[in-house]
Write a structure and sequence with these properties.
The protein is an alpha+beta fold. 25% of the residues lie in helices and 19% in strands. β9 and β10 form a beta hairpin. Its EC number is 1.11.1.-.
């Protein structure tokens, strides 16, 4: 065993307690919770615990869907190079899967590794791969393109940049260390070689593990608790809502999910002019703890029928929480796993900041689309956000032993 691998093994041993805690919280944290409690880690081992946590590359589902939110993230879309087709796509997915498996285990990317993450463990790294609708045209696999990949409808609030939308291939990278995340991004880009070129790339972040005294649902850049109503794996219909079941029209998608990816600019200057009470009415939840305006705690159900002394609904008719509630949309639900972004400040002092919205569902036609249509017609939050980029990707199930991601599609 190399000295480097021995060092990683020592960090894993030191971090056993922290890693076990993170694993135990993984399912419950699917609702956006930062899945680390500062008090759960022995003194002096917090950094080792964060660094030593590894996520398996292989499994029923790809990594990066059910895991807790990570501190750093990169989203990148590729287009196959001119003249590249199915043969090149097979070779590319083999390379990408191999490098992702090594990196997620805390190992070097391979010969010529840059050494960027040399001193770190895997740090909860996940690398997730998906295919856009155009991928099937480029590879001659149109007959295997799922109907769920039909283009998303246009929404009145869209201000989409085509150059930062869609793509043949999509890669989501997340980690609890910025250098580990960048290292994976660089490795994925290098392994693309001549087969594919970057179409767009976006960077995101979340609260760092251990920054709060207890596990908490993340806040977005508006200061709002974001993810309170995410479906939970403990719910009996969770798998049906989020993952593709066996026996469908496209067997290669069994265990997979569909990712809707949107860059949502937050108009923070306008939002921050609102008093907190007005912000709460726009959202329909208390800013302090994410609880519904109708009372209780963050996980309490919204009482949409409750009225105040003035006879008006306590949760306003156009409140974001009311309009997006599953009970208002025929049970439509998505597992949201976002990153915040900040890409600088304009000459006029306006921050280019917001949310890299990533929503997972078994069928976007029954998840994202009906909810977004309803939001598009009268969400009080709409004047304070702008959808600037969009993508829809089929993310196949996790690879089995000896498989690469997408093998059941590309070699069926």
């Amino acid at each position: 065993m190399s000295t480097e691998n021995l060092d990683i093994s020592r960090r894993k041993l030191l971090g056993t307690v922290g890693a076990a805690g993170a694993t135990g919280l993984a399912l419950g944290a699917a609702g956006g919770a930062a899945a680390y409690a500062a008090g759960s880690q022995p003194a002096g081992t917090a950094l080792a615990s964060v660094g030593s946590t590894a996520v398996p590359f292989r499994g029923t589902h790809q990594a990066g869907i059910l895991q807790p939110l990570q501190a750093r993230g990169h989203l990148v879309a590729f287009d196959l190079a001119p003249g590249a087709g199915r043969k090149e796509a097979v070779a590319l997915m083999r390379r990408w899967s191999a490098v992702a498996e090594r990196l997620m285990a805390g190992e070097p990317a391979g010969p010529g590794d840059t050494g960027v993450a040399l001193d770190a463990g895997p740090s909860s790294l996940t690398v997730t791969f998906g295919f856009g609708a155009s991928f099937f045209d480029r590879t001659g696999l149109v007959a295997r393109r799922p109907a769920e990949l039909d283009p998303l409808p246009a929404f009145s609030s869209d201000r989409l940049d085509a150059g930062r939308s869609n793509g043949d291939l999509w890669v989501q990278i997340g980690a609890d260390d910025a250098l580990v995340a960048f290292h994976a991004l660089r490795a994925v880009q290098k392994e693309a070689g001549a087969a594919a070129r970057v179409r767009w790339q976006m960077n995101g972040f979340n609260r760092s593990p251990g920054a709060t005294a207890r596990p908490m649902t993340a806040r977005n850049l508006m200061g709002q608790v974001d993810g309170s109503r995410n479906p939970k794996p403990s719910e009996p219909d969770f798998q049906k809502r989020i993952f593709v079941a066996a026996g469908g029209d496209q067997p290669w998608m069994t265990g997979g999910s569909y990712a809707v990816v949107r860059r949502i600019r937050m108009l923070l200057d306008d939002w921050e002019k609102l008093p907190p009470e007005r912000q709460e009415r726009v959202i329909g939840r208390r800013k302090s703890d994410g609880a519904p305006l109708t009372g209780g705690g963050e996980t309490s159900e919204l009482d949409l029928d409750r009225t105040g002394p003035d006879g008006k609904p306590v949760v306003p008719a156009d409140a974001h929480a009311r309009i997006s509630a599953p009970e208002q949309n025929g049970g439509a639900a998505m597992l949201r796993r976002p990153f915040s972004f900040h890409d600088g400040i304009g000459a006029d002092g306006t921050p280019d900041a917001g949310l890299l919205f990533i929503a997972w569902q078994a069928d976007p036609r029954r998840g994202f689309v009906p909810v977004q249509r309803k939001l598009d017609r009268g969400d009080a939050l709409s004047p304070f956000i702008r959808h600037e980029a969009s993508g829809l990707f089929a993310v196949p199930g996790g690879p089995g032993a000896g498989e690469y991601v997408g093998q059941r599609l590309l070699e069926a």
